[in-house]
Specification:
Elements: H1 2-19, E1 26-29, E2 34-37, E3 40-41, E4 44-47, E5 57-60, E6 65-66, E7 70-72, E8 77-80, E9 85-86, E10 90-92, E11 97-100, E12 104-105, E13 109-111, E14 116-119, E15 123-124, E16 128-130, E17 135-138, E18 142-143, E19 147-149, E20 154-157, E21 161-162, E22 166-168, E23 173-181, E24 185-187, E25 192-200, E26 204-206, E27 211-221, E28 224-225, E29 229-231, E30 238-245, E31 250-257, E32 262-267, H2 269-287
Parallel strand pairs: 1-4, 2-5, 3-6, 4-7, 5-8, 6-9, 7-10, 8-11, 9-12, 10-13, 11-14, 12-15, 13-16, 14-17, 15-18, 16-19, 17-20, 18-21, 19-22, 20-23, 21-23, 22-24, 23-25, 24-26, 25-27, 26-31, 27-32
Antiparallel strand pairs: 27-28, 27-30, 29-32, 30-31
């Protein structure tokens, strides 16, 4: 009996010894002050407001690294620059704000709640996922896999590279005016996508009840001129759409329209102005 108990005790110690190295402590920055980090932190990091609801600011500078995840809560702020690195994922919650001017993320970025995340440059080894009422602004940098906007989030993409798809879902709103998407641009569910610039490496896909608005001029479908307006799957279920976007980027992509989705072709601002002025001139002439 004693030997059996001793054996059980040894087994418990072995199991605990195996699990213990995987359990990491969490470092909290929650004093409402500003912290400049220039050294490696091996633990998880949480940044949140103080007990007096004062936002805490953490600046990840040259030499800074987070060994695991970084979570930002409340109204607190994280600024990331230089050679700073987060080994795992970055998650923004509540009304927090994250500004990435440079640096690298070893896994993913999640934009949750009403948080705001902006990325000027740097690299993300995984995906960026914006959800709920979050706002994500991408000016540059590299995202290795895909960029996803869901919930009621807003995404502004004006530069940088996405290795895979850009996907808009639920009631999200996406505004793409530049940058490169390596594969498909997908507008799904009840999302709203506005494309005025940049390059899409794959297809343009609108499905469910989504609306994909494309801003430019000189549009053709399968080599035939088409006018501005709203197109459904009853007009074209698929084909090849060409033209020039407002940014003067070339549009030359296969497209799919499915379910109750629409692709809307609208003129770029200068063309729209000419159309308006032309309409006013005709109206004035008819009144004379």
């Amino acid at each position: 009996m004693k030997r059996r108990n001793l054996t059980s005790y040894i087994l418990v110690l072995v199991v605990l010894g195996t699990i213990a190295p995987k359990l990491k402590a969490t470092i909290y920055f929650d004093d409402g002050k500003t912290h400049d980090i220039t050294w490696p932190i091996g633990e998880k990091v949480h940044v949140l407001d103080s007990s007096l609801s004062e936002p805490t600011t953490v600046n990840l500078l040259q030499g800074a690294s987070i060994g695991y995840d970084l979570d930002v809560f409340d109204n607190s702020v994280v600024n990331m620059s230089s050679t700073a690195r987060i080994e795992q994922s970055l998650r923004a919650h509540d009304y927090s704000c994250v500004n990435i001017t440079y640096g690298s993320i070893g896994r993913d970025i999640f934009v949750n709640g009403n948080s705001q995340v902006s990325m000027l440059d740097g690299g993300v080894a995984g995906q960026i996922n914006s959800n709920y009422d979050g706002t994500l602004t991408i000016y540059g940098g590299f995202i290795r896999t895909f960029l996803f906007a869901g919930g009621n989030s807003q995404l502004y993409f004006s530069g940088g590279t996405i290795g895979d798809n850009l996907q808009a879902n639920s009631d999200s709103k996406v505004f793409m005016s530049g940058g490169l998407v390596g594969d498909d641009l997908l507008a799904e569910m009840n999302s709203r996508v506005n494309l005025s610039g940049g390059t899409i490496g794959g297809r343009l896909i609108a499905q469910h009840t989504a609306a994909l608005t494309i801003e430019g001029f000189g549009f053709q479908i399968d080599g035939q001129n088409v006018g501005y307006g709203v197109y459904t799957h009853e007009d074209y279920s698929n084909g090849r759409l060409t033209g020039l976007l407002t940014s003067n980027n070339i549009l030359n992509n296969d497209f799919v329209i499915a379910d109750d989705a629409t692709i809307i072709l609208i003129p770029e601002p200068s063309t729209l102005l000419l159309l308006i002025l032309g309409g006013l001139a005709v109206r004035r002439k008819s009144q004379e």
